[in-house]
Structure formats: structure tokens, C-alpha cells
Design goal:
Helices cover 14% and strands 50% of the residues. It is mainly beta. It is globular and about 40 Å long. Mean pLDDT is 84; it is low at 1-31.
Amino acid sequence: MRKMVLAAALAVATLAGAGGVALVSSEVQAQVGTGLAGDWQGGYISSDGSDVNTFDVKLSQAGRSISGTIHEVNAFGDASRALFLTSTFAGTVDGRAVRFTKTYDGSGGASHSVSYSGTLEPNNRRIRGTYDASGATGTFEMVRN
């Protein structure tokens, strides 16, 4: 499954910037983005392709607010301190727009924050978008388990 997510992350990098958000009625828009709580899997790739990784997400939702935890293989921190990195996130869902900030908990020496901005697909099962870690940018994708 992780290989499929990694392949999807690479496809996202190719498609970055493609697609748009259609206007929908206020009744439909009120329903979009509800019920996102649960387990998700994702992947990201840096703009230059040098940083590729997968992650697991536990997502909670209360109205338009989302939060949760993310676990990923330690691909850039101090691997002698932790094989996996853990972070928490908080953000919002507004129509199909999903925005959140992930903050690493210090495991593996990583304690910085990363901003994510994505678009929820109409079936509420996939989010695709971009991330920014203090100027280090790339694309990401999350798929509901």
C-alpha cells in the first residue's frame, strides 16, 4: 500500500497546479467537507524531488475545524533518536478547501511547522495540494483508508 501511495505522491507532483474548484450551491457547499474524521494515508514530494515520504493520519473533525496526528518514517531527522516522526495538526475545511498546519513534536530532532493547502475531491476521499516548510515546498496527497 505504501508503494501505491508513494506512486500517487509522484503523480501529484506532476499534476501540481492542475485543476480548479467549481462553484456550488450553498446547500451543497455546507455538506462538502463533513465527515472527514478517520484514518488516512498520504505522501509528499518536495518540489525538487529530493524528499519523498509517506505518512499515516488520524483525523478528527468538529464542524469546519480539523485536527489530529501524523506519523511518518524519519526521512530527515536524527534517525538514531527516532525511526518515526510524530506531529499534530490543526486547520479548517471551507467548502472543498482544506488548510492545516502540522507541527513536529521533537522526536528525531524535528520540531518545525509545515503549512498545507489542498482541495478535497467531490467524493470526500482524497485531498491534494501543496505544502510549505519555511520555503521548502512541494505537493502532497491524502487518501481515506
